[in-house]
Each structure stands twice: as C-alpha cells, then as structure tokens.
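Saturday, quiet lab. Running sequence design on the structure tokens for the scaffold JK sent over.
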C-alpha cells in the first residue's frame, strides 16, 4: 500500500469538491503533517477529524528536535517554500512515500531531489480506478476544480478527459 503524504492544497481541494469521503476509501496509506493540518480552516479540520479518528488519515506529529532541524535544513536549501511544504517533503522522503501536492515550486524542487510527486489529477485517476466515482462525477468535479483554481495547467486536464473517456468506451 502506497504511503501518500498530503499537502494542504490537496486536502483543501478535496473539501471544496466534496470528495473527502471517497478519497479516504482509497487503498492508500494517507498521511499529512501537523504543520499542514494547522493550515486548514476549522471547517476543513472538522471534516477530516472523523477520518483521523477512524484511522483513515494520519496526522504526523513532529516534536523531535532532530526532525525539526531536518525540516529546517530542507527549508534552507530551497527557494520559496514554507516550513509546512518542507515538512511534507521531509516525510515523503523519510517514509519513501508519494508527495501529493499542487504547489508548483514544491513539486519541481521535490521532484528534482528524487521524491515521487503527484497532484490532484492522480487522485481523480485513483478514484476512477477504484470505482469510487463515476466518469460523469469526475468530469463534473474536475471542471469545478479548474473554475476555482485558474492557475492549474489546462493540458493535463484535457489529456485526462480524453484518457478517461477513451477508457470508458473500451470497457
């Protein structure tokens, strides 16, 4: 089971799209850091709290000074990243997990250091593969996402829509 370390923007997008319940049903070991969880607003935290209590999402608590120093080292070696960004990078590296983020700077720098990085479209792929959402729902939600987040690159979305539709017609 893949370990997935979630950045705040993914968790926020999932709450806006009302896909949290489906997301936590994926056969993935879902984690985030206490620093990232603190970035969520109270309503978003409340949505995730039930899944944390159910063991479907783990919030990694960082109290070890050595770990905090390691996260600070990543921060010092990078450009334009927050401590929260560096915390998910650190744990993705330490746990040999996949970093799930839509933050372009974080994605580029973590990928360059050898971390496996995926984004929200990976989540859509997984939800479809697991039959947790329909193609129609995926298309509706991805359109909602792109209306809300105009900084997302269009081509990957278009490629996904073609791929999903093609796969549906061949099943």
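Result came back. Writing it out in full:
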């Amino acid at each position: 089971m893949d370990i997935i370390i979630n950045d705040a923007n993914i968790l926020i997008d999932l709450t806006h799209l009302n896909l949290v319940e489906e997301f936590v049903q994926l056969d993935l070991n879902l984690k985030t850091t206490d620093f990232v969880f603190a970035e969520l607003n109270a309503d978003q935290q409340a949505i995730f709290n039930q899944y944390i209590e159910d063991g479907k999402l783990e919030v990694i608590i960082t109290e070890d000074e050595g770990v905090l120093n390691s996260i600070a080292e990543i921060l010092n070696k990078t450009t334009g990243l927050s401590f929260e960004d560096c915390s998910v990078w650190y744990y993705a590296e330490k746990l040999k997990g996949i970093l799930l983020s839509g933050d372009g700077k974080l994605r580029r720098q973590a990928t360059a250091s050898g971390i496996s990085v995926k984004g929200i479209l990976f989540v859509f792929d997984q939800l479809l593969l697991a039959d947790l959402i329909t193609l129609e729902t995926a298309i509706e939600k991805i359109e909602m996402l792109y209306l809300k987040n105009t900084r997302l690159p269009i081509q990957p979305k278009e490629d996904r829509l073609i791929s999903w539709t093609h796969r549906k017609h061949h099943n």
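Notes for JK: The longest strand covers residues 29-33. The two ends are 26 Å apart (CA to CA). Ask whether to fix the surface positions before the next round.
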